[in-house]
Predict the 3D structure of the following.
Amino acid sequence: MSRLLLRGGRIVDPSQKLDQVWDLLIEDDRVEAVGKDLPQDSDTEVIELTGKVVAPGFVDMHVHLREPGYEYKETVASGTAAAAAGGFAGVACMPNTDPVNDNRAVTEMILDRAATEGSVPVYPIGAVSAGSKGEEMAEIGDLVDAGCVAVSDDGHPVATSFLMRRALEYTKMFGIPVIDHCEDMSLTARSSMHEGTASTRLGLKGHPSAAEEIIVARDVILAELTGGRLHCAHMSTAGSMRHLREAKQRGVAVTCEVTPHHFTLIDEAVSSFDTNTKVNPPLRGPEDREAVLAALGDGTVDVIASDHAPHHADEKNVEYDIALPGLIGLETAVPLACEHLVHTGVIDVSRLVELFSTNPCRIMGIAGGTLEAGAPANVTILDLDRQAAVDISTSRSKSRNSPFDGVLLRGWPAMTIVAGMVVWRSEA
Ligand SMILES: [Zn+2]
């Protein structure tokens, strides 16, 4: 039996309403106890954490690991290494691989890779429809049986109201959410940024807020009709926040996530024509960013997820309108949230932990999100005072597509522990 004592850190665990300078004792892969001045024997390994935050392991529930099919962009090994270095003790991976994760064989292959080469646990998300084509429903029962924790046709909306209704009804049997990429694609064809004054000035075709909000509204109505669980991914507009706030007040089983790039950047950033600012949904207007910040503050938003979307340099070093959308986010999500949400007073540290750990674990029904005795010993340790610039050249990801290179941020992960093992620690 191995014992690890994390001593003197500020333990922040909203699942127990805990915010105390205490100790955390780990025995093998489980939390043994949290408390004041926990006893240690001679063979207990001790890590001093005075001044650091000790939280239940963060989980990024929206990551593109790209394997199988696009290993030149990312693999399970490189993506989970980036996750550990970003303070994440787990990731959920989207099914838009090649082949699509719409059957047991792909799910099992991802889990097998994660077990042999992964730095942190991987929770696969299966496709809603076969090939994510929006026609026939995938074998969702089989996917869940193989280890999928949710279903999504991410990259695309669930194509029709009919299919979404069926998916919400069917997933109730398994207690899993349908994760929704909300985009009416008839309104966004060939668009490369948010539709607004900036797109007009830059001469780029716009993606209107309405394209997102129409699908949010449709699927909230279907969630209410069916009683199924809907999770809206990467919400980016003021109107979406309004729909979601109202739906939650009515008791609809809907949750949602926002990304760090949508609460830090606006469409004006596209003026640089840096293709790393091209994302889907696009960076929105200033009033949308304000609405996202307000929704983070008032509890409308449940989760911060990175939408880590690695691309090869050749897919980004092209004209803006043909560049692939997406940015790498696993190693910048936590410092962006510390800098722009915690240090500005938009949220407190307990809410940060809820957004990165308690809520994603609850929504996906996975173990973790708590430091209660007996829970898996997955821990994220933060140094809220450390100030450093993002250096994308040191990223563990295989890709380099980030608009945040060189940006100075305060508040960084210091250590990531999975099942009682330190899988990453900051050299700073
Ligand atoms: Zn998406």
Q: What stands out?
A: The chain has a mean pLDDT of 98. The longest strand covers residues 3-13. The domain at 57-364 is CATH 3.20.20.140 (TIM Barrel).
